[in-house]
Amino acid sequence: MKIFNNTFLLRLAVAIILFMHSVPGMFNNGVNTFGTLYLDQIGFAPFGIFLAWTIKLSHLVAALCLLFGKYVKLTSLVTILVLITGIILIHFKEGWYVVGGGRNGVEFNFLLIFALLAIMFPNGLKKAA
């Protein structure tokens, strides 16, 4: 995959989003907090911090892969699985809206999943088969 192909702008946007969703938490204790105060509490103890770091590092790796056009399908698939898990564990109970009609809902993850699918299958599903 060439770096500057027809999916570059979308890959760039998703890479920036994944980067910004992962890196700040690595430096402000957000990842550890998510691991101990959320993941451990919902039954993942004693692996909450490990899982939180794995999730955030997967976002960072995916951002770099998307940016440079390497391992795009694999990292997109892993990220989609993480996003679906986030919907199930966190966002679904909050409803659809992230802001406006609600808070912390599924709409942003939904959009990211379909953006990643569009990156994975730039010619649509018909050509992918």
Keywords:
mainly alpha; 6 helices; globular; membrane; DoxX; cell membrane
What does this structure look like?
It is a single chain. 74% of the residues lie in helices and 0% in strands. By secondary structure, the chain is mostly helical. It has one domain. 22% of the residues are buried. The model has no long low-confidence stretch (mean pLDDT 95).
The unreliable regions are: none
What does the average pLDDT come to?
95
Number of individual domains: 1
Proportion of residues in helical segments: over 70%
Gyration radius (Cα, Å) is 15 Å
Question: Main sheet?
Answer: none
Q: Strand pairing plus helix content: what structural class?
A: mainly alpha
- Tell me how many strands there are: 0
How many helices? 6
Order of helices and strands: HHHHHH
Beta-strand share of residues:
under 5%
What is the general shape? globular
Keywords: Cell membrane, Membrane, Transmembrane, Transmembrane helix
Transmembrane segments: 7-27, 47-67, 74-92, 108-125
Membrane topology: Multi-pass membrane protein
Organism: Flavobacterium rhamnosiphilum
What's the layout of helices and strands?
Blueprint: H1 8-27, H2 30-44, H3 48-68, H4 72-91, H5 107-120, H6 124-128
Helix pairs in contact: 1-3, 2-3, 3-4, 4-5
Give me a quick take on this structure.
The protein is an all-alpha fold and 129 residues long. It has one domain. It has helices spanning 8-27, 30-44, 48-68, 72-91, 107-120, 124-128.
